[in-house]
Predict the 3D structure of the following.
Amino acid sequence: MEDIRGRVTKDGIRIYEDADFAGMRAAGRVAAEILDMVGDHVKPGATTGSIDDFIREEIVRRGVVSATIGYKGYQHASCISVNHVVCHGIPGSKVPGRSSDVLQEADIVNVDVTVIVDGWFGDSSRMYVAGTPKPFAKRLIDATHEALMRGIAAVKPGNTFGDIGHAIQSYAESNRLSVVRDFCGHGLGRVFHSPPNVLHYGRPNSGAVLEEGMFFTIEPMINLGRPETKVLADDWTAITRDKSLSAQFEHSVGVTATGCEIFTLSPLGKFHPTW
Ligand code: MF3
Ligand code: CO
Ligand code: CO
């Protein structure tokens, strides 16, 4: 009856136990190790399909499980979102606006990987660049990374989910960027997506109160233009309505007594594309 240990808050958020952090740490580490290897594959002339093949082979080689293959009919080991694709880009599909899935010089690329290790989910994404980014693209990537880290800095018991969203939104908007409203972070643990919805915008002191033992992702999508998105006819690929560039970084975190633990830190210190 292992599954009924622990408790769920009035907001429906599961509180995990101390021992569960080890499971999340192991799962997050595998996701991060794979993302550390992806950078070498993101270059002009590479295809998103080939990058996903590499990720799937790494998952198999490590004896772990892809959380995305078979999830709601999704068929791939990663989501690969290029330029104005906000999230859920399908590897091997045409880059929107192009005739193929071949990456070109200065493309900005989010790769999102979720693995299951001993039943625990590790979910993370990062930005990569094929070649050298344009200055405005670099500015978007830097600000999106900083927005995520400011959101994470707001994670501690007694703070609220609104505090996290506010930290992200206020930083992004002060840089004249916009926060996507149509997608959010999520609780995870022994499931992929669970309460709460982790919004990347909000008001201080609003929303559910953070407690030690909560596990969730923070994964802001930030646009150079307007925040609105639309999902293409493939039912997955989300793009910016105004075709402006979009960036995203994602970590899986757990609330500790004094702050939080990031489960998906890069073992090689390569979380940001310029590192
Ligand atoms: N990893 C994504 C997230 O951050 C979800 C991908 S679901 C998929 O929640 F089916 F599109 F892969
Ligand atoms: Co996620
Ligand atoms: Co993800």
